Amino acid sequence: MSKFNYDPHKIYEIGFIGSGNMAQAIGLAFIKKGICKAENLIVSSPSENNKKVWRDIGAAVTTDNNDVFVNTKIVFLAIKPQYFPKVTSELFLTAKSSLNILVSIMAGISLNTLQKAFMFESNVIFKVMPNTPSLIGEGFSAISYLNEAKLEDISVNLEKVKLLMSAVGSVEVIPESLMNAAGAISGSGPAYAFLIIEALADGGVKQGLPRDLAVRLAASAMAGGSRMVLETGKHTGQLKDMVTSAGGSTIAAIHALEKGGVRYAMMDAVEAATNRSKEMGEKK
Q1: Considering the entire predicted model, what is its pTM?
Q2: Residue limits of the Pyrroline-5-carboxylate reductase catalytic N-terminal domain (predicted)?
């Protein structure tokens, strides 16, 4: 097996099984925020391109998932959901492990499925739904734990997971039953925003604006509007009314959007994403 800086006699603080964009965003944030030193972080990766990112920061790299699973205190499962059965079948599940907390960031894999696969106590397993703005430290992570876990037993580990995920943005603890709906907004939401920004930019180009300016105007408007919602605490309708003067251009635009069914389309998108997540989970 190819390894880089991996010490088989060392117990690592944090490890990632999987090394893609989300794992990189979270892991690099841990190091940047001082949560974990690079030499105390290990990642398993089959991709040479991904290995380079971790090597450059001084983390230990291996191609053997068991190096992470057995020798790490906090393990993030950051693989694609379709690879979950294969990966778990190859792990040394009966071996003595240093693992204290298991965090899954896989969509569609339930906490019960994780518990059956790993046979851990309920206070060890957590499910986290981060989103792509985590790449720039503006993410939002929904966290769930098993229903049978007692809060007094899980509180210490839960606080650790909340602290870890706060490195890439805001966190919220929610019941797992709401995770698919949360993912349909938070996880898929950036894609909706990109589509809206692109459409607004297209509208600007149609009206004669240069493409790069139209994109920047649209993105800035979305970012600024979002920040106003989060920081003022005012109802979105109230904020909308602040922009919408009587007989003005904004109310004309709002009328066009309502006529086009924008509210229905966005609500339908969230419902479709939620239902698809449920279907994906049922297939596992």
Answers
A1: 0.89
A2: 14-108
